[in-house]
Design goal:
- There is one protein chain.
- The protein is built from 5 helices and 5 strands; from the N terminus they run E-H-H-E-E-H-E-H-E-H.
- The chain is α+β, with helices and mostly antiparallel strands and about 170 residues long.
- A hairpin with a 4-residue loop joins strand 2 and strand 3.
- The C terminus is likely disordered.
């Protein structure tokens, strides 16, 4: 039996000047964004990447790369306030309170050449630790998971809800 050991990787914040690399990596997964809206999405991400206030890499957003020993980004993740927090029907006080306690993993992408090596699970563990240290109570995983993500589906402390999409 062969046991795959994850490669030596470093997990670090994405810099604002790395928007193209970040966007290219995230486009390796289905973002469920119509093609004509991709430029607006990229501009929104670029704006968020320029905000370096805490508590995370980019204010309430956390944009991270996993990179190889030679500095090549091979995975990317975005964690931030869920879209439901933009719902103006929820009182502002409640939205602010939740934004400081609950966050949402909406993108996690691993380059196809590096899948199946535990990189997604490692980046997820890094995100969990960062949010736990910041006092967050919950993380939601809204990213669509394809069949190569079985380790994420069964990670301790995570459960798919009935609305989660699973790709084959």
């Amino acid at each position: 039996m062969t046991i795959l050991t994850p490669p030596s990787i470093t997990i670090r914040p994405v810099r604002a000047d790395e928007i193209d690399t970040y966007f290219d990596l995230t486009l390796l997964v289905d973002l469920h964004v119509p093609t004509h809206l991709l430029p607006d999405l990229k501009n929104t991400i670029a704006t968020a990447l320029r905000d370096e206030r805490g508590p995370f890499s980019h204010a309430l957003n956390h944009f991270l790369f996993a990179e190889t020993a030679d500095g090549t980004p091979i995975a990317a993740v975005h964690v931030g306030p869920g879209r439901w927090m933009l719902n103006r029907q929820i009182p502002a006080r409640i939205r602010r309170t939740l934004a400081d306690r609950v966050s949402n993993i909406d993108t996690i992408a691993v380059h196809p050449d590096h899948r199946g090596q535990g990189i997604g699970a490692r980046i997820l563990a890094h995100v969990e630790a960062d949010f736990r240290r910041a006092g967050y109570r919950a993380l939601a995983l809204s990213a669509r998971l394809d069949s190569s993500c079985s380790a994420l589906r069964t990670a301790p402390g995570w459960a798919l809800d009935s609305n989660s999409e699973q790709l084959q």
